[in-house]
Design a protein that fits this description.
Strand 1, helix 3 and strand 2 form a beta-alpha-beta unit. The chain folds into 2 domains: 127 residues, FAD/NAD(P)-binding domain; 119 residues, no CATH class. The protein contains 12 helices and 12 strands. It is an alpha/beta fold. The longest helix is centred in the middle third of the chain and has 16 residues. The radius of gyration is 22 Å and the shape is elongated. The chain has a 4-stranded parallel beta sheet with strand order 7-2-1-11, covered by helices on one side. A 4-stranded mixed beta sheet has the order 10-9-8-12, with no helix packed on it. It is found in: Lysosome. This is Prenylcysteine oxidase 1. It catalyses: an S-polyprenyl-L-cysteine + O2 + H2O = a polyprenal + L-cysteine + H2O2; S-(2E,6E)-farnesyl-L-cysteine + O2 + H2O = (2E,6E)-farnesal + L-cysteine + H2O2; [(2E,6E,10E)-geranylgeranyl]-L-cysteine + O2 + H2O = (2E,6E,10E)-geranylgeranial + L-cysteine + H2O2.
Length: 347
């Protein structure tokens, strides 16, 4: 089985950001060129956001990226001896056009393929072991799982075909005010249904056998995301895409893309943990008011704060993970809407 795939949730973030760029540039509040922008999180979402922000607003805007840990987020590596090993998003799907564009822009080569073979272990014995003969592998698969493998490939391809519509929306500058609306635009009610049922429920409804789910699908979800087949149906489909063919990775580690994006976007990396974000209103001479966002953070030199015209949240808002306090946002639910009004994107 393949290691963890670069999450398509990150691709969703890039999609929301790309499709929202014209919305940002044309919003009434942004008729004046922003002077300072903050991005919270230096994973692939945050560093890509910094890259596109620089493209959108040019060299005149100051972009700060806040990250308390190492750059890369889920694109993490660990060193054993003299070798670095991917421990996060280890492989990238061939349909991830954003990552292809990034490595071309950065001049980073893909990693050379390492020949390998697959095997399936049910906890007691090997139920399948790949051989050097393609026809033998096919016959073994058919004997134990019927056409489930072929049907799984076709089902995942159907999901990916719909997902690829995101690039068409980006090309024509469409924007979406929520993840749900973006998903519905790509996959209709079917994508929204996947959000509300488990992968096991989804695949059972599609007619996959329980043996196939237990012996093939479950190992894929455990290797890719460390979860069982009771994970979210949409995430499960993404996980299965991470066992597809043509997967690739970046030479020297996928996190090199994040570091490279920060470098070419000429952003300032602030090693600090953001603790709170609040709205500040400043009156002008004309009698109108302007909204700013105060970002409070704690770094090596202690607590500090800065004002920004735009804040992009590119870090998980799970309790215990970031614990960012938001003040002055009403209603609070708007924090889940990465649009030009709130200018906050919690993905």
């Amino acid at each position: 089985m393949n290691p963890q795939t670069l999450s398509l949730r990150a691709l969703l973030f890039l999609g929301l950001w790309q499709t929202g760029r014209r919305c940002l540039a044309s919003a009434p509040e942004l008729k004046i060129q922003p002077q300072k922008i903050a991005v919270v999180g230096a994973g692939i979402g945050g560093t890509a956001a910094a890259f596109y922000l620089r493209q959108e607003f040019g060299p005149g805007v100051k972009i700060d990226v806040f990250e308390p840990d190492t750059v890369g987020g889920r694109l993490a590596t660990v060193k054993f001896g003299d070798q670095d090993y991917e421990t996060g998003g280890a492989v990238i799907h061939p349909l991830n056009l954003h990552m292809k564009h990034f490595i071309e822009k950065l001049g980073i080569p893909p990693r050379k393929d390492v020949p390998s073979k697959a095997a399936i272990f049910d906890g007691k014995e090997l139920t399948f072991e790949e051989s050097d003969w393609y026809i033998v592998n096919v016959l073994r698969m058919l004997w134990r799982y019927g056409f489930n493998f072929l049907r799984m490939h076709m089902w995942v391809e159907t999901v990916l075909d719909k997902f690829m519509r995101i690039y068409q929306y980006q090309q024509y500058g469409y924007s979406f005010s929520s993840v749900d609306k973006l998903l519905h635009a790509m996959g209709g009610d079917g994508f929204l249904t996947l959000l509300n049922q488990t992968l096991e429920e989804t695949m059972m409804a599609e007619g996959f056998s329980q043996v196939f789910i237990n012996e093939v699908v479950s190992p894929i979800t455990r290797v890719n995301y460390g979860q069982s087949v009771r994970l979210n149906g949409f995430v499960g489909a993404v996980s299965l895409a991470g066992a597809d063919s043509g997967l690739w990775a970046v030479d020297g580690g996928n996190r090199r893309v994040c570091s490279g994006l920060l470098y070419i976007s000429k952003t300032e990396l602030i090693t600090a943990k953001v603790t709170s974000i609040s709205i500040k209103v400043r009156p002008s001479k004309s009698g109108t008011t302007t909204n700013f966002y105060e970002v409070n953070y704690v770094g090596e030199s202690g607590s500090s704060h800065s004002l920004y015209d735009i804040v992009v949240i590119a870090t998980p808002l799970h309790q215990g993970k970031s614990d960012i306090i938001f003040s002055g946002f009403s209603p609070l639910s708007r924090l889940t809407t990465p649009d030009a009004t709130t200018r906050l994107s919690p993905l």
